[in-house]
Amino acid sequence: MVDITILLVEDESVESIDIKRTLESFGYQVPYVAPNGQEAIYKALELKPDLILIDINLEGEIDGFEAISKIKELDIPFIYLTAHPEESTIEKTKLTEPERYIIKPYNSTELKYAIDLAVQKNRIWKELKISENKYTNFFNHMSNVMAVYEAVDNGKDFIFKDFKQAVENIEHIEKEDVFIGKRVTEIFPEVKDFGVLDAFKRVWETGTPEYFPENRYKDGKDPGSWREIWIYKLPTGEIIAIYNDVTECKKAEKELKTLNKALKKRDEELKYFIENAPVAIAMFDTHMRYIAASSRWIKDYRSSPG
After folding, report:
1. Which terminus of the chain, N or C, has fewer Cβ atoms within 10 Å?
2. What start and end residues bound the annotated signal peptide (predicted)?
3. Higher-scoring residue by pLDDT: 29, 289
C-alpha cells in the first residue's frame, strides 16, 4: 500500500529509530515520533495520520492506553506495541478496541501485514460510512416517499425494512402505525385489490424495474388516495418502491374538468343569446375571428361566422 502516514509513539529512543527505519523501508511515511502519551495526543490531532503505532507502557503521566482513550474519537486505527504482554494489560487495553497487538521484539513481516490490514479496513469503513450517510440524506430529504421491503412467503407478501420518516404524509396513516418489520398487508389491508403486490412480486422475481401507473387506494383509514409507484430490486434482494401521491393533482384535474364544463355551458348560452339577439351583435376570438353573430349583424354587415 502507498500513501500511508503513521504516527509512531515510542519512549525508547533506540527502539524508535529502529522501528521508524523499518516502517520507512516499507514505504510508509513517519512524519513524527512522539516520546510520550501527551505529545501523542497533540500530534494525532495535528497530523491525523492513517494509523498510530503506540507502545502501551510509555513513561510519564499518560501511558499508551490512556493516550489512545483520548484519541479514539478521531477514528484513527491503532496498533499496540508491547514487550510485556501480561494478561491484565491485554485485558485493560481491549476496552480501546485496537486493531492488533505486536509483541516486541517484533517480526517486520507481521508488522507490515498488520498495518496494511488495519489501514485498509479503516478506509473501507469510512467509505461505507460516507455511502450510508449519502443514502440516509437522500432517503430523508427526497420529495417523494421511498420504502424498502423484504419478500416473505415466497413473494406473496412483503415487510417494511426502511422508509422515509414522512411516510405517513402520503399513506394517510398515523406515525405510530408504521413499524419496520410489519407486513404490507397488515398496514394496508386493501393492497391486494390495489394491485401493487403483484408488481412487487414480479420485480422481486425478475429484477426488472416496473412503473405502476396511478391508481386509487382506499381502506378504512384512507378515504381514497391516488398513487403512482416506481419499483426496483436491490442487489441485496430487497425491493425499493418510490411513491408519488397524485391525489391533489387528481383533485385539480377534476376541478378543472368541472370548470371547463361550466365554461363550455356559459359559452353555449352566450352564443345562443347573441345569435337570437334582436340587435346587431357579434362575438370574436382574440384573433378577431367570428364565434357568433346575430341575424341582424349578418343582415347589416353581410358577414357570418364560419
Report:
1. C
2. none
3. 29
